[in-house]
Design a protein that fits this description.
The protein has about 70 residues and is mainly alpha-helical. Helix content is about 40%, strand content about 10%. It has three helices and two strands, in the order βαααβ.
């Protein structure tokens, strides 16, 4: 059986730092509930979990790995 569900990711630190000045990435991070940008490994961990046998009964759920930026996904 195939299970599926989207993962809504946050702005990862590498995405911002490559294209924006350091002070802009700090400003964006300061507006996040956790006060920092995501590390790519943190978002990847959610995807790895969903691909593992531990998530075998999970289907149709939207997962948010955004550090609390979007508290509810409708």
């Amino acid at each position: 059986m195939l299970t599926a569900g989207p993962v809504f990711d946050a702005i990862a630190e590498e995405k911002v730092c490559v294209k924006l000045a350091h002070w802009i990435s700090w400003y964006v991070a300061a507006g996040r509930p956790l006060g920092r940008l995501a590390q790519p490994e943190e978002i990847a961990a959610v995807v790895v979990f969903l691909c593992s046998p531990l998530a075998s009964y999970v289907t149709g759920a939207a997962w948010s790995a955004d550090g609390g930026t979007v508290p509810i996904i409708i």
